[in-house]
Amino acid sequence: MKMRKFLLVFSILAVMFSLAGCSDETEAPFDYDETEIVIQTMDYFVQYSDVSDEYKDYYISSGDEFEQSAVKGIDQAVNNDKVGRFEDFSTPVQYYSLYGQDALANIDYEIENASDYVMVTVINHADNRDVEISVKYVENDDYYIALDQATRGFNVDSVLESFEYYASLYGMSVDEYVQLTLEQYGVSTLEEAIEIERENIKASLGVYPYTPEEMVVSAVYSKKELMGQAGMNTLLGMGTVFVVLIFISFIISLFKYLPKLLGKKKDKKDIEADKEPANIPAPVPTFVPAGGENQASNDELVAVITAAIYAAEAASGNAYSKDTLVVRSIKRVNR
Questions:
Q1: 196 with 215, same domain?
Q2: What's the predicted TM-score (pTM) here?
Q3: Residues of the chain with pLDDT under 70
Q4: Do residues 115 and 176 share a domain?
Q5: Residues 110 and 29 placed together within one structural domain of the fold
Q6: For 194-222, b where at least 16 C-beta lie within 10 A, e where not — what string?
């Protein structure tokens, strides 16, 4: 039993370590130069962080998805998060355009590859707090169309055909001209020289294998600030709930006054009718014999005796109304 538990725990740990040891790197959906794509991210931020109010309105109303996200994100960081003045990214951008390399020495950045996009995040050290600028890049189909048009027919046969023309101009053989070209490119084969020239054509196109789709600009808050904001949001939420519950309880307490507010006033006739006594039917007299023993009521006997009493009183001048003459009981008298 202990051995089974040990094997189970060992298997779980082995799976955990194997998953932790797996590389989480994903192959990029397109080719890119790391320095170049980071510099482009910074250049986009510089471009949209220094625009007038008129251009902001234009980008938000008529711009594409990337332009709208860039302007809105930067505006929120400035006005809502109060990050202060941004770090100047124009210097490394200009340095890269002049020298091509070593432009990211003091730049904090991160590149994340996904199956269908590449996310580049650059940290801007603003006056009041750091700001994360994340740009999502997707594959640019127009790049491959432009590259195909620029390099169509650019192969070994077409290059040799052009070399024959240039070799005749300089009084050289084709082989001599090819050898001179290889020395200029520093390669040993014509195919390598053609590949280098293809890369030069790519750079001269002005387009890249990727295009920006969205920019997210967010201020970086410390854990203490985030906990404070979370606590404040919790208090506001709970306070709102309690206020609403108290208001609902107050409304429910007013329901007892609704009958009085909605009830109609009685008419004068209805009030007088309520004051008149209701016609109470005369109770049926119960015949109780002298012995005090209760017997079943004899309706006919009671009716006859009641009628006799009514007639006798009427003959003596004491007339009673049928409603006021009530026979309570009848007792036999022994004489």
A1: no
A2: 0.56
A3: 1-25, 100-101, 263-299, 317-335
A4: no
A5: yes
A6: beeeeeeebeeeeebbbebebbebbbeee
